[in-house]
Amino acid sequence: MSGTFYGIGLGPGDPELMTLKAHRLISSAKVVAYPAPDTGPSFARAIAAGIISKSATEIPIVVPMRVDRFPAREIYDTAAAEIAGVLKSGTDVVVLCEGDPFFYGSFMYLFERLTDRFSCEIVPGVTSLTACAARLKRPLTARTDVLTVLPGPLPDAELRPKIEAVQAIAIMKVGRHLSRLKSLLTEMNLLDHAGYVERASLPDERVLRLSDLTSETAPYFSMILIYKGDEAWMLPPSFSS
Ligand SMILES: C[S@@+](CC[C@H](N)C(=O)[O-])C[C@H]1O[C@@H](n2cnc3c(N)ncnc32)[C@H](O)[C@@H]1O
Fold first, then answer.
1. What is the pTM of this model?
2. How many domains are there within the chain?
3. Ligand 1 within 6 A of 102 CB?
4. Is residue 165 located within the same domain as residue 199?
5. Distance in Å, CA 119 to ligand 1 centroid
6. Ligand 1 center to residue 89 CA distance, Å?
7. Cα 90 to averaged position of ligand 1 atoms, centre (Å)
8. Domain limits at 200?
């Protein structure tokens, strides 16, 4: 009988935000796969490092971090073939996923290649969206307000009407788009409604009002949260972290 393929959400970075189920499956796993950049360590592996067995076989899936190379078809074909080989031998494979596997996660590229042939289980994780709201100490949305999640790389012409249409907005993948996004939100009179969270839940986390952020670019793991609804949640004048 073939092994089971697990997509495991690890949460946003603090290992204490991992679920008990994720912890159990990772610590007992014989084969652990995870995405890794072509330079530097894997963020997903770093979150789970303390509980991966020393005897586990590791399958790093090296994906270049350049946007124009996504989705890297051949890389996922090769990784899926390697994982399929392990599953066919009857061994389970655990795939580590930062945040939640099905929330903008690269895990879905493996999922689509393997799910029709093997038993697959998804273990949801704390998303960066909810982690950033928690660190900003401001509810994401309420009552009949609508929340929209937007990728920062979208052009202004697409972002503007989507931001105008709702009361709560999360902008992900801020990175090198920070200056442009800040200008857009300033033009829309929303800068004072915007909070910024970088590397939520990690020791080097930063939580600021977007207007207090002076840098031109942001790291990849950053997010802007805007609330313009009628509730009385205001951004505090400053943040301690
Ligand atoms: C490819 S998506 C992965 C999302 C992830 N699967 C999740 O459930 O949160 C990457 C984006 O998530 C956001 N992100 C992930 N982890 C974060 C963190 N610890 N702090 C702030 N933003 C984070 C950033 O906007 C980043 O550009």
1. 0.94
2. 2
3. no
4. yes
5. 27
6. 34
7. 33
8. 128-227
